[in-house]
């Protein structure tokens, strides 16, 4: 090769090298043209690099869009695209169609996602839904016991398995984000959300935050940055610890009320579950409607920013509750500009608007443009939202995995829910003084023997599921979803030839005329379904006709009373005539778990996660209080051994 040829070859190599280096560098400009290399879309890039690269490309409108969460009924692909919406939710009962199958949910969510992906930067939406005891909005989903029952199991490993099962059922509908778990420490059962709390004791609630690792996956032993969100993959969902903080401590249990407590008490009672949630890599935290010593939590910079973000080093995003900013003022929405200012400056990152999104976007834009809210606060919010979206793989897998549709309501999950029911039951009484234990019940009776099953809740799937099931408030009856009632379980449990008579509301005459026929009775009564403020209750008596049924039946026939409720109720007036008393809480769709234990296939193992008071005049009364005089103390629960037949 001549000297000239060698020089020419060297020049060509240098030019090729320059071209190769140039091709590997990100393109300058906005979103980048077709084929342009964008660092934020490269999963091989470090997380911080991707966030920084995307954030620097975003306009104010795109940033505020990411901070906006709107309701499903508004969220067409066009709306998501036009307003650059970052998140969509289904409120309680908000569904694509009645009894919609998972395929319909997937189609809906994917349609909205297409609107997001066709924006300039293609930032995917994160779709969120309440899944507080299973995928409750969805027809034929597995409904697990509400948290009050799970707290009675004292079984964090069970809670984690439940979280993993719920994650799969939620993913079956194309949704990657749940507003769960509720880690409230309910200190007063008059609160209408007490059943959403695992316990009155912060230690029990802390232990049950294991459900977060079920939802999101277990953080690897190698770990990551403390406080950073973690979602293992496409079979997991982002979780949300709520409601920050003190929601379970309001005066008289008033929903959205005021928690009067010293800083020390707030830290000792209500804050501990959040320590564990942050350690477990929870992706989001929802702020409470309630106030602390008169200051609305949605406007509390000290607790939201100084404590949660700065002291606890929480690095996910903080979301408001439903119209949470509106409720900063009285009346709601009276001064929306002020509410937005207070909420965003307090440290809220994403706002569950959910309807007046154009007003929110316009007002927040104005507050930034006039300098009331600094761009640094907006950037902090968007950085956190993007961190969660990148971490959970939304940019790589924005659309639903249709192979998961079969996970909804699968038998394996129903078996798990049935196990949870068995372990959640608490046996409060088993036999009158001097008499043999009533439980377990015999499955086989002597020739001609019969069992009376009585009460409104024995054959009512909706009542045993409670609130947040198909609709926000829940429904009564057996036509809401798929499942097994307690009566169904009893009929399957007894031996062939055993006669079971069901009477929803037997009067005294019926009982007196027929009592010689019955070997024993099972009375199932309790509360109707409710959620949130609709469940606030200052008297906590067993709703009618429950007391009359107990008096009529248990006054004449050996009976076990199964109480289906979201909290302890006043039972002392009846305890002397009841042979056995079982707290079944709100067991969900798998009522056969109740009969499994009543008839001795499994023993009773549950322990009260709450103090069972004698009278509401004692409330609030929690374990450790100086005036502690319960009917059944925290941690109480009689045990039985499985029967051998």
UniProtKB/TrEMBL annotation:
It holds the Pfam family Glyco_hydro_3. GO terms for molecular function: beta-glucosidase activity. One of its GO terms (biological process) is glucan catabolic process. Residues 59-388 form the Glycoside hydrolase family 3 N-terminal domain. Residues 425-639 form the Glycoside hydrolase family 3 C-terminal domain. The keyword Transmembrane does not apply. Keywords: Glycosidase, Hydrolase, Signal. Residues 1-24 form the signal peptide. This is Beta-glucosidase. It comes from Miscanthus lutarioriparius. The lineage of its organism: Eukaryota, Viridiplantae, Streptophyta, Embryophyta, Tracheophyta.
